[in-house]
Design goal:
The chain is mostly beta strands. The radius of gyration is 18 Å and the shape is globular. The longest helix is centred in the first third of the chain and has 16 residues, at about 55-70. Strands 1, 2, 3, 4, 6, 9, 11 and 12 form an 8-stranded antiparallel β-sheet that branches. A 4-stranded antiparallel β-sheet has the order 5-10-7-8, with no helix packed on it. It is about 10% helix and about 35% strand.
Length: about 210
């Protein structure tokens, strides 16, 4: 049987956790600003996890597992990380999240805290300017889309799921077709410590406090 190796892939770290329902109910009472027409609302607080220790513990557990596990990114333990920002996304019925990536960040994550059925699916994508198994200027027909030949991928989302991926990866969420609001917590992560270029040159990264 032939082996297919997903060489130079873009890992997406995905796991499911038990969440504190009391904190979730409190977080829904935060103040929000409209992000754009039918593009959802974003909490005024961009350090939201500092107010909710149980949800914060879930996020840190997922980040640590994603960054340092030998079967994931397997980043050296002397490299630390810092959460640059964290906020709540609220998407009422008929709202969606437009295609975007996250600047000035290495990794981006989403914790799904209240996801009604039929309220939108997370899609991850690669821009046409980025070569994968083929360049963006050539698009041959395929019989079946899979992780080797796709430029977009839908991830199932439900309460308790946490996802971490490189911040340059494009992502968006479909329209909320339910009758209820959808709530997620998003966060950006930067590594801290000495980076090595492999030729005895190092660069020290230090994230300054706001």
């Amino acid at each position: 049987m032939m082996d297919v190796i997903p060489l130079f892939s873009t890992p997406i770290c995905y796991d499911e956790y038990t969440l504190d329902t009391n904190e979730i109910e409190s977080i829904k009472k935060e103040k929000f600003n409209l992000s754009g027409p039918f593009d959802g609302y974003i909490s005024n607080d961009y350090d939201i996890l500092s107010k909710y220790p149980n949800l914060s513990n879930v996020v840190h557990k997922h980040i640590q597992h994603s960054l340092y596990d030998p079967n994931s990114f397997s980043i050296a333990s002397n490299m630390k990380y810092k959460i640059l920002s964290s906020w709540v996304n609220k998407h009422p019925p008929k709202h969606s999240a437009h295609k975007h990536d996250h600047a000035n960040s290495m990794f981006t994550g989403v914790l799904y805290i209240d996801i009604p059925d039929n309220s939108g699916t997370l899609t991850l994508g690669v821009s046409m300017s980025t070569p994968t198994w083929i360049t963006g200027t050539i698009t041959p027909n395929v019989n079946n889309f899979n992780i080797y030949n796709s430029r977009t991928w839908l991830l199932p989302t439900r309460n308790g799921v946490c996802v971490l991926f490189p911040s340059h990866l494009e992502h968006w969420v479909g329209q909320n077709k339910s009758n209820y609001d959808r709530y997620t917590i998003a966060f950006n992560v930067m590594l801290e410590g000495k980076l090595s270029s492999g030729n005895n040159e190092t660069l020290n990264i230090k994230v300054l406090d706001n």
